[in-house]
Design brief:
This protein is an alpha/beta fold. The chain has two domains: about 1-115, Rossmann fold, CATH 3.40.50.2300; about 125-220, Arc Repressor Mutant, subunit A, CATH 1.10.10. The protein has eight helices and twelve strands. The chain has helices at about 10-20, 35-40, 60-70, 85-90, 105-120, 150-165, 170-180, 185-200, and strands at about 1-5, 25-30, 45-50, 75-80, 95-100, 125-130, 130-135, 140-145, 145-150, 170, 210, 215-220. The strands form three sheets. Strands 2-1-3-4-5 form a five-stranded parallel sheet, with helices on both faces. A four-stranded antiparallel sheet has the order 6-7-8-9, with helices on one face. Helix 1 (about 10-20) links the parallel strand 1 and strand 2 (about 25-30). Helix 6 crosses helix 7. The longest helix is centred in the C-terminal third of the chain and has 15 residues, at about 185-200. The protein is elongated and about 50 Å long. It starts with a strand and ends in an 8-residue tail after the last strand. The model has no long low-confidence stretch (mean pLDDT about 85). Bound molecules: calcium ion (CA). Calcium ion (CA) binds near residues 8 and 9.
């Protein structure tokens, strides 16, 4: 694959370049945001690996500008460890996935495969899981033929979980993403809040919101075994 890596930290950039090349990918490296944006705009790539904190133009701005130009190349963001706000903002701006630093190279490769498979999906498409549908543009949520009335917070939480379907989202990340950094909300409140969301979303089988004890929550659609 043709991969554009935009990363200003020299060691990390070199690690990515070498590692991806060893996997047989063609890698183009950009050292700052402006350069990365220009290269992404001018040539076609299968995937763009984009650091968020960059000189001259940050990764979220680059993603937004590319999407405004109708460039739908899959974007994988690299974010700092506790940057829940970056993650939500990045996904809202049209990034396809993210990875928090430090990450294992195997996970990076898996995510690259995954976003490249997804290809250039327009970000305006609805999120779907089983018969649950969330339309980020109109902010409508339906399950089967029922329209669900969610509060803005419930909508944010559901969107976060659906964008990460199949992946466990930690309670800390949820609190920071939905309530913001330094929020006073505690984990009991989150539990109560998820219970309310379940009463709206999971009124029928199969249940889609699952608790991962001691960690957080995951949305998953478990298909019935084929007969
Ligand atoms: Ca950086």
């Amino acid at each position: 694959m043709q991969i554009l890596v935009v990363e200003d930290e020299r060691r990390m950039a070199e690690l990515l370049r070498r590692g991806l090349a060893e996997e047989g990918h063609q890698v183009v490296l950009a050292r700052d945001g402006m350069e990365g944006f220009e290269i992404a705009r001018m040539s076609a790539f299968d995937v763009i690996v984009l650091d968020v904190m960059l000189p001259r133009m940050d990764g979220i701005t680059i993603t937004r500008k590319l999407r405004e130009l109708k460039n739908q190349t899959p974007v994988l963001l690299l974010t700092a460890r506790d940057a829940a706000q970056d993650i939500v903002q990045g996904l809202d701006c049209g990034a396809d996935d993210y990875l928090t630093k430090p990450f294992s190279f195997d996970v990076l490769l898996a995510r690259i495969r995954s976003v490249s498979r997804r290809g250039a999906i327009p970000r305006t498409v609805c999120l779907e899981l089983g018969d649950l549908r969330l339309d980020p543009a109109s902010r409508r949520v339906t399950r089967g033929s029922d329209e669900l009335a969610l509060t803005p917070r419930e909508f944010s939480l559901l969107e976060l979980l659906m964008r990460n379907s199949g992946r466990v989202i930690g309670r800390e990340t949820i609190l920071e993403s939905v309530w913001g950094h330094g929020c006073e909300v505690n984990e009991n409140t989150l539990e109560a809040f998820v219970r309310l969301l379940r009463m709206k979303v999971d009124t029928r089988e199969p249940k889609l919101i699952h608790t991962v004890r001691g960690v957080g929550y995951v949305m998953r659609h478990v298909m019935r075994q084929a007969e």
